[in-house]
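Schema walk-through. Below, the input block comes first and the output block second. Nothing else is stored per chain. Lengths vary across the set, and this one has 273 residues.
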Amino acid sequence: MLSQIWGARFPVDVKCIALEYSKRFSDPIYKVAEADVSAFEGALYPLPKKGGWAILYNPTIASSGRINYTLAHELGHYFAHRAMAPAGFQCGERDVLGNAAKTALRQQEREADEFASYLLMPLNDFRQQIGTQRMSSDLLRHLADRYSVSLTAAALKWIESTESCAAVVVATNGHVLWCRPSTSARKARIYFEFGMELPARSVAALGEGAQRDDGTNLPAGVWHSTPVREIAIFADRYEMTISLLIFDHAAPLDGWDDEAVEDAFDRFERNSR
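--- output ---
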């Protein structure tokens, strides 16, 4: 509904929507501002004296796309969860990308993430931007620029919407933090567990010198039993690598149960505290 009100103008001005649309409610958002607090990337705080709310974000976030996504994430908490959390929310880096460690918060963080994704990157427009193009670093940067989101957020949106067999793998210090497979990848049983060491011949492990704009073709046995094209993002400030893996020849396996992948997500979230 909010994306329809805003129209086909990009990037979406989250601050404008938060301040103006929330006026329809008895407890509106009065402020969207920086807060120099290192404990979180974004927060939804109650303003008891005014009877409303404030959305705050950490100004040390280097990427304007991360800030925009963080604001949208907190706006999602405002619309969906403020009645359940009168003390508000403080969201760190993992929370803003749907990887809250505490089970009680996980569903709320996923819902806030889903809200942010659809507000900033409406699916119809997102698919129009991709068309029949092959995923590449240039296309990923175009999507991130158009919607003013991080490359990671754009990659996750593509994973959600694509029919390709693909996965996003986020790692730090050479080990997997979390993985998000596409629907086709789930059916092919492609998943990389928390704590797994990055493959030695992967682009993420070798560094930026191994990167190609259209993705680096890697043989079978590097990431999977089938060949893969890896598009890597190197986030030095966060000591992270984000690998977009595209498995063009991986076939679905009979008898695959989606609950197995959800169990793997749960194991990751329990272990990543």
